[in-house]
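User: Need the bound-state model for zinc ion:
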Amino acid sequence: MVRSDSYTPPATSRYECTGCLSRFESDSHLVDCPECGEPVRNVAVPRE
Ligand SMILES: [Zn+2]
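Assistant: Bound-state model below.
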């Protein structure tokens, strides 16, 4: 069954590295920064 909700969740998640503070978007679960290997955290997109 295919649902067609009007709300479509974002296809990608945003992450921020706790080491180098680089930000990434990934459609898969990231745990380590691809740049420096430090843990990343999922950051919500701020909405005004
Ligand atoms: Zn990093």
